[in-house]
């Protein structure tokens, strides 16, 4: 029987379509524009890549602190939608402001604010998965979110790309084209959230009580204690930290990496557009395959594939190499994110989803601190960008070994 999304599931998926537009901009036009601003200020290519990586790492640290704390607050009755809306609002506003900046240092500062808001909103969005669907539908619903997010993000991206690349032909300045591109992305992101915000109801929660903040911290403390005892969850989070850290480092720094190698900007953007297009059917195919093959097996294949991708990056030096890398990433990128999200949602207590996904995001979307810092440091220390990026292979290898251990622990419990 063909899988059909419910109305609420569709609205949840739609937010993935909206926020993915911001992700696409962060991995493509943002770093290219920052490179333009940094170049005007006399910043070298290696330092440009390093500063971009350090800014991403700062976002990670902020979300690592805010995620679990706000996640605990979000688990309180009727609070999840409020915290989600606030985080999203910060990200959308920051995205709009970025287009008006001409100073590279101010651009980095507001970028940190916007990306922190974006990453924090995903903590609560991911936690909503337990409220909008049932456990036996989570793999498919999560896969649809990433799949439609990839293809949907192409619409505002292509429009923005046409405006930015054709600025001279239509008689506008680079600054004006960037204002329009960031505004389009922000509005796409904002309007995609409206249906979900109008229909979402928090099914699993903790009662508010008299002291919401204090009680949230108490519950968070209990959750950390439980986490140590629930070894299958704890080891999975360790594995997730390593392998997804590498995945998000590739996403965050792909265009910056290509720019630093001196590759053509237009070719880089088109290659990354191909990544989105390839990712769309790939996630849906793996989403169907998971009904016949265990999600643990598919996640293992994806981690191993990323290990090969990181090793391949050592020899990358041409536009063709980058295109090959883009296609390889597109095949596995969405699947590893979608199935990791649904796998985690199924092994945690539903009423504590905000707290647990806050911890999850320390190791995930908002927490690529080790990967970005590792690439930045090794690139500067060795003077070789390729060595910095290929070092991510170690993180995928460690993540693979830990994930197999966690999978065996979970199997033993069932």
Could you give the topology of this structure?
Blueprint: H1 7-27, H2 29-40, H3 45-74, H4 80-98, H5 104-127, H6 129-132, H7 138-165, H8 174-199, H9 212-229, H10 231-260, H11 265-289, H12 295-312, H13 319-347, H14 353-362, H15 369-382, H16 385-390, H17 392-413
Helix pairs in contact: 1-7, 1-8, 2-10, 3-4, 3-5, 3-9, 3-10, 3-14, 3-15, 4-5, 4-8, 5-14, 7-8, 7-11, 7-13, 10-13, 10-15, 10-17, 11-13, 12-13, 12-17
Describe the structure.
This protein has 414 residues and is mainly α. It has one domain (7-413): Growth Hormone, Chain: A, CATH 1.20.1250. It is built from 17 helices and no strands. It has helices at residues 7-27, 29-40, 45-74, 80-98, 104-127, 129-132, 138-165, 174-199, 212-229, 231-260, 265-289, 295-312, 319-347, 353-362, 369-382, 385-390, 392-413. The longest helix is centred in the first third of the chain and has 30 residues, at 45-74. It is globular. The chain starts with 6 loop residues before the first helix and ends with a helix. The mean pLDDT is 82.
